[in-house]
Amino acid sequence: MSSDPLAAAATDNLRIHTFAALEPGPRLLVLGGVHGDETCGTAGIERVLAELDGGTFRLRRGQLTLVPVANPLARRRLQREGERNLNRLFKPSAEPADYEDRVTNVLCPLIERHDVLLDLHSFQSEGEAFAMIGPRDNTGTLEPFARASEEGLLALHLGTPIVVEGWLDIYAAGLAQRSAGIAVGEDAIDFGRGTNEYIRNCGGYGVTLECGQHRDPKAPEVAWRAIRRALALLGMAALPQGLLAEPPKPPQLLRLASVTDRLHEDDSFVRDWATFDAVQRGEPIGMRHDGTLVSAPDDGFIVFPNALALPGAEWFYFAHPSERVLGPAAA
């Protein structure tokens, strides 16, 4: 921590802005800066704050809560994490062991008081903006859910060209793969749960919006448009001029199918991959330090390629097209 008292104070406080209409309605929470090097969500939220403070628009009903920087320590360092990844092991802690535990203890009750969550992120590799949604309605043990239709409709109206499903399933499969057949405990599965998994567990629903590459100058606009579209969909505020009431066309829907870890510091990609680069079955993706090729398991798409991944961490995800229907027919 810095010895500068002002800098230290900035990491000890969360800015939480709440606007409540006089008419009851949905309660929407928007988070930015869960990861400190992802600044576009903060920029989009600050723009909405300025509009609300300046009277550009008002809430018609419900309650809107905006958190521009959910992880102040990581933001001050302009790093993904402060002391650990805030978007993992997201649950209250009776004995907080690190900075992110203390932040989580503030954010968890805040999330519990809301119906809908929009969590704004960006990513390291080149690629288009996309939304991430949770499971289909199910009564299973990993992530039981009953609001897939509402969640899918929100993702549809955010207007991204791609929507991705299947995160927690593939995270759990990755854990099983790394454990080499040893049973994976619930604590290990919990490490894959983030903000959206938490609100689903509380009876709400949420969408993660990946607004583009970290430094993409269009990413803050993507974040702002998503907030305004979410407010309009929920009947909480009017759309600004220039934004269509309906998404221009249905997005491409992909399902995560597998994750491949980087095993050695000399493992390398055969070229610079961007998120959603298409690959064909057997196409070389990377090479292990011993010369073994890592190839595409099927026709599909590269997601979240990370050439800087530490050994033992996710190197890239693989996705294929999904036949899921977003919106009222989702199941």
TrEMBL record:
Recorded GO MF terms: hydrolase activity, acting on ester bonds; metal ion binding
Stored Gene3D superfamilies: Zn peptidases
Stored InterPro entries: AspA/AstE_fam (IPR050178), AstE_AspA_cat (IPR055438)
Keywords (A to Z) from UniProt: Hydrolase, Metal-binding, Zinc
Record GO cellular component, one term: cytosol
Co-factor(s): Zn(2+)
Protein name: Succinylglutamate desuccinylase
Source organism per UniProt: Variovorax beijingensis
